[in-house]
Amino acid sequence: MKKGGTAQLMVQNKPFLILGGELGNSSASSLEYMRPTWARFKAMNLNTILTPVYWELIEPTEGKFDFTLVDSVINTSRENNLKVILLWFGSWKNSMSCYVPAWVKTNQNRFPRAQDRTGKGLEILSAFNKNNLDADIKAFTTLMKHIKATDKAHTVIMIQVENEIGMLTEAREYTDDANTAFDSDVPRELINYLSAKKDSIVPELREHWSKNGFKTTGNWEAVFGKSLATDELFQAWHYAKFANAVTAAGKKEYPLPMFVNAALNHRNVLPGQYPSAGPLPHIMDLWQVAAPDLDMLSPDFYNPNFKYYNDLYTRRNNPLFIPEIRFEPSDAAKVFYAFGHYHAMGFSPFSIESTKTPEEEPLGKSYSILAQLSLEIIKYQGSDKMEGVLLDTQTKKQEIILGAYKLIASHDYTLGWSPDAAKHDWPTSGAIIIREGENDFIIAGTGVVFTFSVNGSVNSTAGILQADEGKYVNGKWQPGRRMNGDQDHQGRHIRIPVGEWGIQRVKLYQYK
């Protein structure tokens, strides 16, 4: 559901924030392996599990389906008060077709593979073959029918269609069908879209099209020029069409929200050296026009460019959901920034079950804070009254404007009070800030210090009238200590130290 400048996930007609964790790729294939993990999820304050559904295991023999594993994960999640997002490991997983059934893999005449430019087959199903598409649709729609029929408690809340689609070793396929399509006219659907949206498509796509004079007739190279970038555009169009056909068929059976995820390129390499043609930010227009039944395009993070790529993925009215991010301590700060600055739908580190000390995980402490604040976050999503900060050694301070006040957020170590402040690498810190009244703020996070001034005024000074730490219980604020002493440095700042997590409600005032 649209709310202001963002979108909210609705679960049984109520907005829902995903405090998630994604299972390792093979974990959900074994009930025995999964048995001890549920207590870890509870200890880390998760409310959602992202779990693969393996095509080869639900349809080991063509036309005969076995949902034992799927049902077990869903039912056990429900028993543990967890929602579920299913990840369809169908035709592609991390570019490759490693989870398709043996009866597909071993019958290449019926289910052809993509080929490189020498004609060599790849471990990737061709996106240009109807048999491949029909088999995927049949399995996926059977899955969706089963979920609709058995999940009466609505434990499953969203579906990822395929996983990290993209071509490797080549920017595009070179099967006969692919070559024929490449030499044919660019689909009029795409040309009409580009022509109508010429000034609003993402700059990367516009620049590439402009190099060939914004042509609107001819085959792919005639319109976009001869390059690997053009090859990628072509392949992206057909991957998106394939994914949309699967999505549309699945939604016809059970219309849950559905999305695709992308393996991000951050190493400045060429298409094919990274997974070419996936739902990447520089080609998101192609995905949006070719796959209108998808609800969003989502980034998977295994690189340090968190702000950069989130900025790219929140263009073109694309809601932000982070279904996969490397499981590391910095997630505990990044999640505050994702919800506060980007008004994200959800956040989900990968291989969440791998922790051996869930009670000590920094992410679990952040999830505890965010769970308490969930109703407030939902209330202010899409408005200009909520922001986030993300700080580290490179970004030690951040300025934000909320209402009449300018807030300077600084890393806790800038105070110099900690012996660790002299270290070269500071731990990542972050916070979420909500302006709930003219002078009233909620500040929550870890490792941050806030100072305040009156925005645009040299005659008035902002003071801290009161600061209370506390917690929310069932959405109701329960104040703890009044922090108007050493804790706020006698009215100089609001502080949540590194290694601590907290919520403070702060009331400001102005004096001359």
Give the tags.
six-stranded antiparallel beta sheet; 24 strands; 512 residues; eight-stranded parallel β-barrel; single chain
DSSP helical segment count: 15
Shape descriptor: globular
β-strand number: 24
Q: What is the strand content?
A: 25-35%
Portion of residues within helices: 25-40%
Round the mean pLDDT to the nearest integer and report it.
96
Structural commentary:
The protein is 29% helix and 28% strand. It is built from 15 helices and 24 strands. A hairpin with a 2-residue loop joins strand 3 (9-11) and strand 4 (14-16). The strands form six sheets. Strands 5-6-7-10-11-12-13-14 form an eight-stranded parallel beta barrel, surrounded by seven helices. It has a six-stranded antiparallel β-sheet with strand order 15-18-19-24-21-22, covered by helices on one side. Helix 6 (130-150) packs parallel to helix 11 and helix 11 runs parallel beside helix 12. The chain has 512 residues and is of the alpha/beta class.
Write the layout of secondary structure elements.
Blueprint (H helix, E strand, L loop, with lengths): L1 E2 L2 E2 L1 E3 L2 E3 L1 E5 L8 H4 L2 H7 L4 E7 H4 L9 H12 L3 E11 L8 H4 L7 E3 L5 E5 L4 H21 L5 E8 L12 H7 L5 H9 L6 H8 L9 H5 L3 H26 L4 E6 L20 H7 L5 E6 L4 H8 L7 E5 L5 H10 L5 E4 L12 H19 L5 E6 L5 E6 L2 E7 L17 E7 L4 E7 L1 E7 L6 E13 L2 E7 L11 E3 L5 E10 L1
Parallel strand pairs: 5-6, 5-14, 6-7, 7-10, 10-11, 11-12, 12-13, 13-14
Antiparallel strand pairs: 1-2, 3-4, 8-9, 15-18, 16-17, 17-20, 18-19, 19-24, 20-23, 21-22, 21-24
Helix pairs in contact: 6-11, 11-12, 14-15
